[in-house]
Amino acid sequence: xxxxxxxxxxxxxxxxxxxxxxxxxxxxxxxxxxxxxxxxxxxxxxxxxxxxxxxxxxxxxxxxxxxxxxxxxxxxxxxxxxxxxxxxxxxxxxxxxxxxxxxxxxxxxxxxxxxxxxxxxxxxxxxxxxxxxxxxxxxxxxxxxxxxxxxxxxxxxxxxxxxxxxxx
Amino acid sequence: xxxxxxxxxxxxxxxxxxxxxxxxxxxxxxxxxxxxxxxxxxxxxxxxxxxxxxxxxxxxxxxxxxxxxxxxxxxxxxxxxxxxxxxxxxxxxxxxxxxxxxxxxxxxxxxxxxxxxxxxxxx
Lengths: 168, 123
Description:
The complex is a heterodimer of chains A (168) and B (123).
Chain A: H1 3-28, H2 31-47, H3 57-82, H4 102-109, H5 113-124, H6 129-136, H7 140-160
Helix pairs in contact in A: 1-2, 1-3, 1-5, 2-3, 3-6, 4-7, 5-7, 6-7
Chain B: H1 16-57, H2 62-70, H3 75-78, H4 84-87, E1 98-100, E2 103-105, E3 107-110, E4 119-122
Antiparallel strand pairs in B: 1-2, 3-4
């Protein structure tokens, strides 16, 4: 790996770390794990750098990040299920350090994965509908419809839990 | 509060780029040797598979089979009189030895029309 090559990858990392981190964080809800997933995303893409087209790079990054995050989330939940010791722990999850209350996190978690992925990319990744469509392998129109449905369901869930009021 | 609160931008933990550069170096350093190991393993496996396949699937070709079938048996057996009839060869006349009262006697062959019969007169 040349120094120019490395410098370019680090530069891209600096520019895209924050949006990627924010997307991944809403899936995993853990800062350290999320940053690890973002770095793993870049490393995986770097390994495949010879096969990557420049115009598809951003889509590939976010698709990889979402896949890794969803896998990490599933494995974490599985370990929680089998971790008998955790039964004795009493954890106050009412408000996490990031300021998100448990009802807020639960509301987002309860969305169907395909809807949530679209919502995270539209609200946090700064991507256009065509970019999101390419990243998720769906039609542009589907991006819009899933976003609308996801937002409606999210508001409904938050209303039920008393997090948002009716007047917005 | 509305849903916008869920999408407020968070700052990632500090030092991410530095850590990523470090991990990139680690992956780049291990990559050639790992690839070399994989290639060596694949080459070795392919070699073993090739040799095994050749040994298992190898069959003598037609020329080789004909050569084996047509090859004359070892000389001693081939020239044995026992094979004359089988191979359709004329049996060379054998020397007749006759002993009378523990002494060798002379014999004279008498002609006959039957090819399978030999008549001798003891002199």
